[in-house]
Amino acid sequence: MSGKDHKGMSIREREAALPGMLSKIEPSAARKFVIAIKRLADDLTYGLDGSRFLGSGVDYVQSRQYLAGDPVKSIDWRVTARTGKYHIKEYEAQRRFPAWFLVDTSASMVVSSMVQSKYEIALRVAGGLALACLDRTSPVGVLGCGARDVHIKPSLAKDQVMQWLLRLRRHSFTEPTQMVQRIRELRPTLAARSIIVILSDLHEPGAVHSAALLAQQHEVAVIQLQDPAEVLMPNAGFMRAKEAESGRDFVARGRRQMMNQAQIENELRRGGVDHLLVRTDQPYLHRLRHFFRSRAISGGAR
To answer: What is the CATH number of domain 11-52+96-297?
Structure first.
């Protein structure tokens, strides 16, 4: 991570020069930010021991015929009904799934009509979930899905998690999204079944389809961030605007949805992707906890 660009600047120097900094963590920025993340991790951890998105799992291997002394609770009733003889389910030893957090660092995540932006909430949620995973000894990695080079392999080092969280506090107001490209690059590198949590506003065309492709081999959850201004802009009439990431000029009309939310949700559901919509103008902790608690399926088998 020490490479230099054509201007002779290191990655650290380029990131330090980024114009944006999350406002809610000033002053004593680093310390307050870390405390907020740890508090969120504690809140999310409560009651989530069975969630397949927060750590360990047991994979089903096979069913064998029942032997005297086998636990009754392990009987495979489907095979028993089919064969007429009692069978027992056998599982692999408990193991830990690596967890990847794909954080959308693009400009559309930073633009906000509320006190907290989509990007700030996404970063706090990613940090809280990452620390919750570490509490279950699941290695955690992060992949930035913007133009910046943020690719940190899964590790059990808590210091590494805090380093990338503090690093991602800085942002650019013009950074383009590269969600589809980042997922395309990540897929062939995932040798083992993994837990993947995507935090994005899903503005990039093809992002939903890419998430569905990942879900064919991995446990994927999409936490979609949404600003209320993206839903409706009432009484706005016709307006001329510029897209934050591409700089493209366009004409829009108030009272018209900017995104087809129903289509996004249907495509994710068909692809087997767990999805939670988080709005920046509404409380999200209770819904986030319920989202993972309701998916308490060991080993990720659907």
So the answer is: 3.40.50.410
